[in-house]
Amino acid sequence: MSQVPSAVPIAAPTGAAARPLARQSYEALRVFVRNPSAVAGVLLLAAILAVTIFGPMLMNADPFEIAGAPMSPPGEDALLGTDYLGRDVLTGMVYGGRATLLVGVVAAVLSMAIGLTVGALAGYYGGWVDETLMRITEFFQVLPTLLFAMVLVTLFSPSLATIAVAIGVVSWTGTARLARGEFLRLKRREYVLAERVIGAGDARIIWRVILPNALAPLIVSATLAIGMAILFEAGLSFLGLGDPNIMSWGLMIGSNRPYILTAWWAVTLPGAAIFVTVLAVSLIGDGLNDALNPNSRGRS
């Protein structure tokens, strides 16, 4: 520590550090767009978002409205058929995508916020802080997540907000462990030590210095968390714990499951929509993993 000048150049102006970061971002984007699976995932997700965002504006219908005879097969009167109550399946899928995707994104953001905060503090401070936070993480990790989410939703009544919060509260442990590992790896790097030498506070070092360098695996984790949250919401709705006043793909599957043999379209088509959406998110996550992995960039 006596040779302080050797550490000073590392604490270079942020403009100098921005050039390598910009080049890394360009290289990551180049690798991503050359990945056919990742591009296919982006196109799939873009199409799904376009339908769920602009579809309701064009249709201007009520997904709970009785549109025809119950359990009518796909045909001219109802393009994708009707469910057990006579509600139009196509209308339900277009409107239901909004709720499903909204819950998935909000739950993933909440999960990442909790996990990142816990993991960053544990990895940066170490000692008793790390020990305490990791014991809390292990407690949540051994809980049966679906059962715990069901209890939370039941206690606070089913709604989109409570479902998103319940999913976020039970699914942050993996992110916390990932963030902790990244902070443990990066906190002894020279540029972090240089920030300490020039008097930077802990908050600046955690959120402005270490976090930007730990984002690559966390971005991939956040992308995959969206797909997991969508499946989680579908599972809760399938069990009858969805918001009965808001149409979602999971609610369509859950309400029509007793009639799957006589009206398969009312269950299979929303299930296919969930499958395609999660597949698209997974493809994007895999593409980001390859693009943000330095080894992958070196091979491309």
Automatic annotation (TrEMBL):
Q: What is its main location?
A: membrane
PROSITE patterns associated with the record: ABC_TM1 (PS50928)
Compartment(s) where it occurs, according to its Swiss-Prot or TrEMBL record: Cell membrane
Q: Which residues form the ABC transmembrane type-1 domain?
A: 97-285
Bilayer topology term: Multi-pass membrane protein
Similarity field = Belongs to the binding-protein-dependent transport system permease family.
* Protein name listed in UniProt: Dipeptide transport system permease protein DppC
Organism lineage: Bacteria, Pseudomonadati, Pseudomonadota, Betaproteobacteria, Burkholderiales
Gene coding for it? dppC_4
